Automatic annotation (TrEMBL):
Protein name: Transcription initiation factor IIB
Stored PANTHER family: TRANSCRIPTION INITIATION FACTOR IIB, TRANSCRIPTION INITIATION FACTOR IIB-RELATED
Keywords: Initiation factor, Metal-binding, Protein biosynthesis, Repeat, Transcription, Transcription regulation, Zinc, Zinc-finger
Gene Ontology biological-process annotations: transcription preinitiation complex assembly
Gene3D superfamilies for this protein: 1.10.472.170, Cyclin-like (1.10.472.10)
InterPro entries documented for this protein: Cyclin-like_dom, Cyclin-like_sf, TFIIB, TFIIB_arc, TFIIB_CS, TFIIB_cyclin, Znf_TFIIB
Record keyword Metal-binding present: yes
Xref: SMART domains: CYCLIN (SM00385)
Organism: Halosimplex pelagicum
Gene Ontology CC: one annotated term: transcription preinitiation complex
Residue ranges of the region described as Disordered: 1-40
Family: Belongs to the TFIIB family.
All copies of domain TFIIB-type, residue ranges: 23-54
Length: 324
């Protein structure tokens, strides 16, 4: 028996290093060749000399095969991913409201009454205490407002995480659940670079705008949320969509705002007001001629603000060679 064989049986490689199960060999102990994994036979072998280092390895993949994405979704038996928008993160079971069995057939009246009792008890057990009932109500409110505002899923998840942090930091006493939930959604939208005006949140919320503003400031300060000042350019897409302006006008509005930002003319002014004024000015430059009233209603900005910012943007644009 050679020294190499003795080393292998002793659990050591040719250079004397120990071999463990948790750290598979990356090179062959016999010839120092490359070790590859053979999925078909469940073995780890050396490409050079063919030495089998491991056999009968466990296949942790599914036992079925799928060739299309729809087929994969149909055969998959795992549950939905965890989410911050449910008080239990979606880990609990839910009894379907449909009174049907596994074969899709309607159940008898006796079983239907039993299912209803099971649903009642299941609902009670899912929210065991006041903490979970608070989360369930608030996260349901966040989902409702997010659907009304048509915000993206990442923003919704972030809002759920912010509200959970507020609950863990004991920031809720003395404040309404609806107000804190709205503030969390508003903060999440700003963090993701898709800000909405407070008036838009107040329209779908059950609390007044001033209470949302106070709750947002409190949550932002206590949780130390890293939220940068809103950029006027971030409001342009939503205003342009609401006003149904052309792509040319949208590009012109971006140019006006970019020029103003380059010289710092936007500092201290409302980002939404600047975006609305830029679109109003852009539509006049492209002969679309939107009225101040139309822009004001779509952007929730006063006509006085639009007139003032409109003049400022055009002056800055002309002074910096915008019409050259």
């Amino acid at each position: 028996m050679t020294k190499t064989q003795l080393d292998i049986e002793d659990g050591r490689t040719a250079d004397g290093k120990p071999v463990t199960e948790s750290q598979p060999r990356s090179s062959c102990p016999e010839c120092d060749g490359q070790v590859v994994h053979d999925d078909e036979h469940g073995e780890r072998t050396c490409e050079e000399c063919g030495l089998v280092l491991d056999e009968n390895s466990i296949d942790r993949g599914p036992e079925w095969r799928a060739f299309y994405s729809d087929e994969k979704d149909e055969k998959s038996r795992v549950g939905a991913p965890t989410t911050q928008l449910m008080h239990d993160k979606g880990l609990s079971t839910t009894i379907s409201w449909q009174n049907k069995d596994a074969y899709g057939q309607s159940v008898s009246d006796r079983k239907r009454a039993r299912l209803q009792r099971l649903r009642t008890w299941d609902e009670r057990f899912r929210t065991k205490d006041a903490h979970e009932r608070n989360l369930k109500q608030a996260l349901g409110e966040i989902s409702r407002m997010a659907s009304a505002l048509d915000v993206s899923d990442p923003v919704r998840e972030t809002a759920g995480a912010i509200y959970r942090r507020a609950v863990e930091e004991d920031l809720l006493p003395g404040r309404s659940i609806e107000g804190m939930a709205t503030a969390a959604l508003y903060a999440a939208a700003r963090q993701h670079g898709t800000p909405r005006q407070l008036v838009a949140f107040a329209e779908v919320s059950r609390v007044e705008e001033i209470r949302i503003q106070r709750a947002y400031r409190y949550v932002s300060k206590e949780l130390g949320l890293a939220i940068e000042p809103a950029d006027p350019l971030e409001y342009v897409p939503q205003f342009a969509s609401a006003l149904d302006v052309s792509d040319e006008a949208t590009r012109q509005a971006r140019d006006l705002l970019t020029t103003a930002k380059d010289i710092g003319a936007h500092s201290g002014k409302s980002p939404a007001g600047l975006a609305a004024a830029a679109l109003y000015a852009a539509t006049h430059l492209t002969n679309e001629q939107l009225t101040q009233e139309t822009v004001s209603n779509a952007a929730h900005v006063s006509q006085v603000t639009i007139r003032n910012r409109y003049q400022e943007l055009l002056e800055v644009y002309a002074e910096n060679g915008g019409y050259a």
